[in-house]
Specification:
The protein is mostly helical. It has helices at residues 4-28, 46-79, 94-99, 107-112. 63% of the residues lie in helices and 0% in strands.
């Protein structure tokens, strides 16, 4: 990272994203190991409930994966390793970090995965 101000901005951005992801998981009923929102067992259209539950579970999976990446980036920031490719050890370009603050790999290494 180029400066303390930039580091503080990135930390704030990642913390905001983390908080938003946690909030969305809570809204879906998947926070803290939850299994999702409860649906009325007497609802007439059980296929609709099944479809909605499946969509909510898929969204929760994506949100959890993103949350894991954001928390990992925050840990790297705290350890002073943020902005370094986890594969080759080279600096990740600023433009990539601006577009994807939780990036773990430089473009070369990411394209090989």
């Amino acid at each position: 990272m180029s400066s303390d101000a930039t580091t503080a901005e990135v930390r704030a951005q990642l913390e905001q994203e983390r908080d938003e992801l946690r909030h969305r998981l809570t809204e879906l009923g998947f926070a803290d190991g939850g299994t999702g929102l409860d649906y009325d067992a007497n609802f007439a259209d059980s296929s609709q409930v099944t479809a909605e539950r499946g969509e909510a579970e898929a969204l929760a999976t994506t949100l959890r994966e993103t949350l894991t990446e954001v928390e990992h980036a925050l840990a790297k920031l705290g350890a002073g390793a943020y902005g370094t490719c986890e594969n080759c050890g080279k600096p990740i370009p600023e433009a990539r970090l601006e577009a994807m603050p939780a990036a773990r790999f430089c473009m070369d290494c990411a394209s090989k995965r």
